[in-house]
């Protein structure tokens, strides 16, 4: 009788999982709505719909590459042809920065919300735990990555952590580096790999690895593992919503971030907003009945 009950429970769990996957597939449009900012195409989805898309793709045996693009990504996209080619190779690009959301509203093509990589990891791990998907943490400082892994497993006990490693790779990675990372990942059999190496190093690595492991979902998450571990502190939620998280980051790491945030990204924000306004003014006026 006990064995029968156990079989029934397992069957019910499998049925719930199957229903969840079918529901996710039905909800997700293969062609996500998109917004163009300075030539970069961003998918106009929030975090929930993005995760619907990710796990629906995985359930079909199809991997994908997600880029969470902030202002610095768009700046490099505009100014550097190599970066433009790199970011354009991703399957999905979402806005990880309030300046991008503001610019989309100025342009008249509003994005629904900011989708920050650091805010995506916990809900992704929750869904992975519920669905039995294996998650791998690649990159980050070794101590921070291990602490982040411990916290995620403690928070989501059913999470199948496929592994973690913090390899040194170049930008772009060498053939030997690729071979080493590939061997480690193939042994771990992950479904989702969160790559925490910073941009563009993480994107260069992902572009090379996805050709070898096309069934995997790859997401570049930058410094997110340090946020989860507590080695870096995220800005308060209100500061994030005000679009001032960069000030908080600059305060914590002034030497590393001053040039990027103050000398490069701030001037480009003016370019982004001016182009957004120009695009709105150039758009044909909507007429009733047309």
From TrEMBL:
It comes from the Bacteria. InterPro entries: WecG_TagA_CpsF. CDD domains: Glyco_transf_WecG_TagA (cd06533). Keywords: Glycosyltransferase, Transferase. Pfam families: Glyco_tran_WecG. GO terms for molecular function: hexosyltransferase activity. The keyword Oxidoreductase does not apply. This is Glycosyltransferase. It comes from Ramlibacter henchirensis. The lineage of its organism: Bacteria, Pseudomonadati, Pseudomonadota, Betaproteobacteria, Burkholderiales.
């Amino acid at each position: 009788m006990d064995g029968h009950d156990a079989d029934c429970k397992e069957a019910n769990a499998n049925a719930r999982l199957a229903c969840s996957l079918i529901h996710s597939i039905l909800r997700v449009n293969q062609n996500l709505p998109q917004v163009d900012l300075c030539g970069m195409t961003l998918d106009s989805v929030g975090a929930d719909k993005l995760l619907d898309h990710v796990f629906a793709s995985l359930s079909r045996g199809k991997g994908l590459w997600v880029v969470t693009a902030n202002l610095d990504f768009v700046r490099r996209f505009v100014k550097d042809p190599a970066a433009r080619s790199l970011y354009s190779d991703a399957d999905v690009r979402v806005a990880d920065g309030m300046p991008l959301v503001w610019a989309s509203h100025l342009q008249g093509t509003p994005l629904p919300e900011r989708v920050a990589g650091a805010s995506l990891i916990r809900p992704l791990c929750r869904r992975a735990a519920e669905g039995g998907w294996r998650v791998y943490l690649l990159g980050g400082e070794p101590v921070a990555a291990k602490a982040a892994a411990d916290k995620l497993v403690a928070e989501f006990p059913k999470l199948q952590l496929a592994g973690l490693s913090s390899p040194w790779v170049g930008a772009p990675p060498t053939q030997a580096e690729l071979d080493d990372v590939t061997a480690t990942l193939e042994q771990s059999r992950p479904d989702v790999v969160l790559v925490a190496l910073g941009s563009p190093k993480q994107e260069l690595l992902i572009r090379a690895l996805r050709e070898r492991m096309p069934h995997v979902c790859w997401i570049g998450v930058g410094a997110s593992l340090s946020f989860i571990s507590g080695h870096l502190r995220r800005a308060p939620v209100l500061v994030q919503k005000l679009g001032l998280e960069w000030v908080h980051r600059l305060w914590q790491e002034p030497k590393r971030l001053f040039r990027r945030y103050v000398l490069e990204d701030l001037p480009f924000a003016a370019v982004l907003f001016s182009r957004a306004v120009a695009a709105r003014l150039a758009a044909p006026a909507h007429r009733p009945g047309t």
